[in-house]
Amino acid sequence: MAFQSIRQFYVEIPPVTRFYTTACALTTLVVHLDIVSPLQLYFNPTLILHKLQLWRLATTFLFFGSSVGFAFFFNIVFTYRYCRMLEEGSFRGRSSDFVTMFLFGAALMTFFGMFVNLLFLGQAFTLMLVYVWSRRNPFVRMNFFGVMNFQAPYLPWVLLCCSMILANTIWVDIIGMGVGHIYYFLEDVFPNQRRGYKFLKTPNFLKLLFNEHIDRDYQPLPADRPGGFNWGGEEDQPPPDNNNAEEGAPNPEIARDPHQDRNQRDPPVAAVN
């Protein structure tokens, strides 16, 4: 019974979050069991370019430490939580766009990682997810271990201060927040500016992969449009009567006596507030 509950919980996790957190957990587990060495996983541009060890481009985002302890569980739960909230929130029904954000963020972090001595970028990737979620949920109230309350946009800065207090390198937080801000600006801010446009385009093969392909020739029904049916719009008007198309032919509805018997008029319709 417990296995069925765990399986049900796992299946209900959104696909991108399920894949990424599972990959992170398995990567850390195989290192902990000494099946793979961290030296085979860390980010090394020289080995990637000259020896074509391309897997390092992915494993640098999947490793959270060789020991399965408190730090690992904190990082994996933090990653799972904000990754799932993003996928079920602003990316609901748009997993292909979520994967595009993953690829864009990973590419930028890989570029910045060439100039900063960081071996693993998993925590920076988590900070990117936290930053994007916090900017898209500005009115959510946060509680930091029961010590202080603040709104969601301050969460990345609180985490940065914690890294400074714990004497951890702050480049991880700076890169994660910087890449998150670049994505947020290009996706949510710049398209709404004057002469702005959508910079990031989701490839069609990703939409097909997640079964999100939309026919461009599809015309939505009136009930599917914003505002519902177009009451009184031009497209709802009946076609003109060809029998009265002659010039000067009187329209029987217009020529009707306005002082006709009230009993013959249409009954009034009550206004619904």
Automatic annotation (TrEMBL):
Entry's transmembrane regions: 20-43, 55-80, 101-134, 154-186
Organism superkingdom: Eukaryota
Keyword Endoplasmic reticulum recorded: yes
Residue segments, region Disordered: 225-273
Subcellular location: Endoplasmic reticulum membrane
Topology of the protein relative to the lipid bilayer: Multi-pass membrane protein
Segments of skewed composition (Low complexity): 242-253
Annotated GO CC locations: endoplasmic reticulum membrane
Keywords of this entry: Endoplasmic reticulum, Membrane, Transmembrane, Transmembrane helix
Ranges annotated as biased composition (Basic and acidic residues): 254-265
Pfam families: DER1 (PF04511)
GO biological process: response to stress
InterPro entries hit by this protein: DER1 (IPR007599), Rhomboid-like_sf (IPR035952)
Family stated for the protein in its record: Belongs to the derlin family.
Function: May be involved in the degradation of misfolded endoplasmic reticulum (ER) luminal proteins.
Annotated protein name in UniProt: Derlin
